[in-house]
Design a protein that fits this description.
The complex is a heterotrimer.
Chain A lengths: L1 H30 L15 H6 L3 H33 L4 H16 L2 H15 L4 H26 L2 H9 L4 H30 L2 H6 L6 H9 L5 H38 L1
Helix pairs in contact in A: 3-6, 3-8, 3-10, 4-6, 6-8, 7-8
Chain B lengths: L1 H28 L4 H4 L8 E7 L13 H9 L2 E7 L2 H10 L6 E2 L3 H9 L12 H6 L17 E13 L21 E4 L2 H11 L9 H14 L3 E5 L3 H6 L5 E5 H10 L3 E4 L5 E8 L8 H11 L2 H11 L6 H4 L4 H4 L8 H5 L1 E2 L6 H16 L4 H36 L1
Parallel strand pairs in B: 1-2, 1-3, 5-6, 9-10
Antiparallel strand pairs in B: 4-7, 4-8, 4-9
Helix pairs in contact in B: 7-8, 8-16
Chain C lengths: L10 H22 L10 H7 L2 H30 L3 H12 L6 H12 L4 H8 L11 H24 L4 H9 L4 H29 L3 H6 L7 H11 L4 H34 L1
Helix pairs in contact in C: 1-12, 2-12, 3-7, 3-9, 7-9, 8-9, 9-12, 11-12
Classes of the chains: A mainly alpha, B alpha/beta, C mainly alpha.
Chain lengths: 267, 410, 273
């Protein structure tokens, strides 16, 4: 009896918290179909979805955001994954610790401090345009790649690697055939995290973007005056795409997992 | 009945033909020089323009998108971004993190930038429209006496926007300190405009360099703070139109835009006097395509372009010829183009000495920071006591355990 | 563990971190202690000491937001960790999904919800209730912080709680421990690492925000992040004063986190004893 009650209670609690998380998103989506600007409902319309494709500012910002995110996440993944391998093969405890601490720095440092410190650096070096922005994004993405690859290296079965060496692989081949496949999930997670961070970043971009207009900077300048509903439309589209991708991948992996479990049961 | 209708239709036809010819005439007289504008065609040039938010005809509300027009006409690509205060623009240029070919600051900021060597000198020979169209009154202004650095874009005034549903009439800055409207008042989010209001309501010049007067103004702004809903710039559009705020000092041109969306809004020039400003186009130091930038400036001085811009944003044009192409209603509007009497009561900003600017910056921050509520101090002291108590408890428990362990090991 | 011989692979990373993380932070320190001409001065630091109340206010609001996040997220994460595998996956996806919508827009939506004539107040007046003062209060700022950062609390808590085996809980209750005893002696100590990383990931961005306070806080909630933003980009690009304020924020955050971490490690050691 209490079990059931508990279940109901926890269900209600989860539902309420989810409502809290999704309420503003619901508002945004609903008002992307509003026929007028502003937050008073005047009627259903697809106007903003049509206008979106002729709004050069928004499309241009989207393009810039994607360019930055792509470059930043690819480079961050390369540097971060290599770093994990390098640090993993270090014997010197002190050096290892130092690197770990420096890696934690961007995670502990308030974003605004990261932003202004890089702004100072780029002003000092007299850089402007895409390059500093991408550098800044790589800097805050790298640690998350590093941290998601390192544990995978620790989990690799020692025997497998040694067996590969014994069977005549040179270290490079052994790395390619044994280590790489094992750390790949970590690399992919890191890459996805990097791309998410980069796409969503506002604070660091705000201080380092110069005159490159990324989506979040465009949105910020809109938020400071009047948000044009085209941006609600764009966000709704992006949101739905991500939702679909996540749903598909999740359902697949869940199905796989269930199949596995069934097999286990049979055995 | 049919007859009346046909007469009416005929009259309409005649009228429209007439107006069309008038329009055509007007456009002919102010036709754009296609040859001049074709100079950089096919060179794939790109210009970076940095302007105030909501400050150009962008194709909304039936206007013509002038940036697209310029791109089509000249083949030059324009990257257009916006700022919201003069001080923000200044910081961005100072930091060196961004490159711009054209910026559009206000009067006092232009002299500040020029004094600090941050602007390129313009070649007016490349901007023929300056001599051709810009009104005499806007030539060699105080902020750029030799007309070396700037070409005017628009001008305007500051006044009080209020909602007649909640406030009957306004004629003085005092209303911004009226406690009946607490929480419904908006205020400028930049030092110079805010201090101007405080200085003016104290009866001083808005260019005061007197440290005591400025401090007095800061104190006045601090007493206003509890009544202010928020310090904002262009957020004012939504807040006033949706009636989340009732009263706000802002630029006259933006009032004209807002009043289209909410008819209850009204505008007043306070009797203590106010600020009249000119926003002008400049080229920052280090500009690579200076001649193309000058072409952009020249384009913005075309009466047809200025008419599009000022018709859309509601600010006033320094190019009288543009008025021929604008709605008569707009041109005759006493808020956009106040009479000489009203203008006489206005002051223009000038650049202040560095020390005064610094004092303003620091005082402006101290106004924004404000003071903390008693509730805050209560909570802080309670939590401090709590943490200390916890630490003490923690330590005593630890000691006890250590003692117990010691006992055991014995 | 396997042995690799590829130390060189970490060199790009090391160089990168020195150039683009450590060097910029050193620049902040440099500018904090110099004047416009590069001469050593303590004026900036003294100046920023004037803003300690603002910093205290930010810490205060961020701390409240962090506590609320923890209180809300803890049971949520626990419930989540007890679900079946596929439901767990679904839930963690649902928690992460809002982060894909730009946080400025989500905060802007809150603005529309909380405004004097916003969604909530329109509903209240429609059913004959008086309108409430919601926006431009410190409550609104805390709400904005909680809303934006609660996923960062839920996810670490959840991932640590999935590691608590069901049998441990059962053993505890079999041995006679009640609900609260099980919670205090088993669940809480085992989930401590999750609490630490959750608190860090909520507190640090909350204490330094300038967007949320600007959008939801009105005139009365000026935080340290707003101050830094104005010193750099709002007034006259005063990079010396701005650096000093940033340095102050940085030091306070690091000290807070260090103290917090120490407390927790002590507690967890005890739990193991």
């Amino acid at each position: 009896m209490t079990q059931k009650k508990n279940k109901v209670l926890s269900g209600v609690y989860v539902a309420l918290l989810m409502l809290f998380l999704y309420l503003p998103i619901l508002v945004l989506i609903v008002f992307s179909f509003n026929s007028s600007k502003g937050y008073s409902w005047t009627g259903f319309s697809l106007k903003w979805y049509i206008d979106l494709f002729s709004n050069e500012l928004i499309l241009n910002s989207l393009k810039n955001t994607l360019i930055v995110a792509l470059f930043a996440s690819v480079f961050a993944t390369l540097i971060g994954a290599l770093a994990a391998i390098g640090v993993f093969s270090m014997q010197n405890k002190f050096a290892k610790n130092a690197i770990q601490n420096v890696t934690n720095l961007p995670l502990l440092m308030p974003e605004i401090v990261m932003g202004i410190s890089m702004m100072l650096l780029f002003a000092f070096l007299n850089m402007s345009g895409f390059v500093p922005l991408i550098i800044a994004h790589i800097s805050f993405c790298v640690p998350s790649v590093f941290l998601s690859v390192l544990p995978k290296l620790r989990q690799i079965n020692k025997n497998m690697y040694e067996a590969a060496l014994d069977l005549g692989c040179n270290p490079f081949q052994a790395f390619y055939k044994v280590v790489l496949p094992e750390i790949m999930p970590g690399v992919i997670t890191g890459f996805l995290m990097a791309i998410t961070y980069s796409l969503d970043d506002f604070v660091v971009s705000y201080f380092t973007a110069g005159n490159v207009q990324t989506l979040s900077i465009t949105i910020y300048s809109m938020v400071k005056k009047r948000v044009s509903p085209e941006i609600n439309a764009l966000s709704t589209i992006m949101f739905v795409i991500v939702l679909l991708v996540l749903l598909v991948t999740n359902i697949r992996s869940i199905q796989k997992e269930n199949a596995k479990q069934k097999k286990m049961m049979k055995l | 009945m049919k007859k009346i209708l046909s007469v009416f239709l005929c009259a309409l036809l005649v009228l429209s033909v007439c107006s069309m010819t008038v329009l055509a005439d007007g456009e002919d007289a102010y036709a754009l020089d296609a040859e001049y504008y074709s100079k950089f065609k096919g060179q794939n040039l790109k210009l970076y323009v940095y302007n105030w938010g909501e400050y150009i005809a962008d194709g909304a509300d039936g206007s013509r998108d002038v940036i697209a027009w310029f791109e089509e006409l000249t083949g030059i690509d324009v990257e257009y971004t916006t700022f919201d205060t003069n001080e923000g623009l200044y910081s961005k240029l100072q930091s060196g993190s961004a490159y711009y070919d054209i910026v559009i600051p206000s009067d006092y900021m232009i002299s500040r930038l020029a004094e600090q060597g941050m602007l390129e000198k313009l070649d007016l020979g490349n901007i023929p429209n300056f001599a051709k169209y810009v009104d005499e009154a806007f030539r060699n202004p105080d902020y750029d006496e030799n007309q070396e650095y700037s070409v005017p874009y628009t001008w305007g005034t500051v006044g009080i926007i209020y909602n007649t549903k909640y406030i009957e009439s306004v004629d003085s800055w005092e209303v911004l300190w009226n406690e009946d409207y607490a929480g419904k008042i908006l205020m400028f989010d930049n030092s110079r405009d805010s201090f101007a209001i405080a200085l003016k309501s104290l009866g001083y010049s808005l260019n005061s360099e007197n440290a005591d007067e400025i401090t007095e103004a800061a104190e006045l702004l601090k007493t206003q703070k509890p009544l202010v809903q928020a310090y904002v710039m262009d957020q004012i559009f939504d807040k006033m139109v949706e009636e989340n705020a009732w009263i706000a000092p802002y630029y006259a041109g933006d009032y004209l835009t807002m009043s289209e969306d909410n008819e209850d809004l009204a505008f007043a020039f306070p009797k203590e006097g106010t600020n009249r400003f000119v926003d002008a186009m400049c080229i920052p130091k280090g500009c690579v395509n200076k001649e193309a930038a000058e072409m952009f400036i020249n384009f913005m001085c075309e009466p047809a372009v200025s008419a599009e811009n000022c018709g859309m944003i509601g600010y006033s044009t320094p190019i009288s010829a543009a008025k021929d192409l604008m709605d008569a209603e707009m041109v005759e509007n006493p808020i956009a183009y106040p009479s000489e009497d009203v203008l006489a009561n206005m002051e223009t900003f000038v650049n202040l000495p560095d020390e005064v600017n610094q004092q303003l910056d620091i005082l402006w921050i101290s106004v924004s920071v404000g003071s903390l509520t008693t509730g805050f101090w209560v909570v802080i002291s309670v939590s401090a006591v709590g943490i200390t108590a916890y630490c003490l408890y923690h330590m005593s428990v630890k000691k006890k355990r250590a003692a117990m362990r010691a006992d055991k090991s014995l | 563990m396997i042995k690799l011989n590829a130390k060189w692979a970490s060199y790009p990373y090391i160089i990168w971190m020195i150039l683009f993380t450590i060097l910029p932070l050193l620049l902040v320190v440099y500018f904090a202690f110099t004047d416009g001409n590069g001469a050593f001065t303590l004026d900036n630091v003294k100046q920023s000491a004037l803003y300690i109340p603002t910093l205290a206010n930010s810490v205060y609001l961020a701390a409240i937001a962090t506590v609320i996040c923890l209180v809300l997220a803890y049971p949520f994460a626990f419930i989540m960790s007890r679900l079946t595998f596929s439901k767990q996956k679904m839930m963690s996806m649902l928690v992460m999904l809002p982060m894909w919508m730009n946080f400025l827009l989500r905060t802007y939506a809150w603005q529309a919800i909380l405004e004097d004539n916003g969604v909530i107040n329109t509903m209240l007046t429609a059913i004959g209730l008086p309108a409430a003062k919601l926006i431009n209060t410190s409550g609104a700022v805390v709400l904005g912080m909680v809303y934006n950062y609660i996923p960062f609390m839920i996810l670490p808590l959840y991932s640590i709680m999935t590691k608590i085996d069901k049998s441990v809980l059962e053993a505890s209750s079999d041995l006679g421990a009640g609900f609260f005893a099980t919670f205090r002696r088993v669940v809480l100590p085992l989930s401590l690492p999750g609490i630490i990383s959750g608190v860090t990931m909520v507190f640090v961005p909350a204490v330094s925000t300038f967007v949320i306070s600007g959008m939801l806080g009105g005139s009365g909630n000026y935080l340290i992040g707003d101050l830094i933003e104005v010193q750099f980009l709002g007034n006259s690009y005063d990079l010396n004063a701005g650096s000093a304020t940033s340095l102050m924020l940085m030091v306070v955050v690091l000290i807070t986190m260090a103290i917090f971490n120490r407390f927790e490690t002590e507690d967890s050691e005890e739990a193991l004893v």
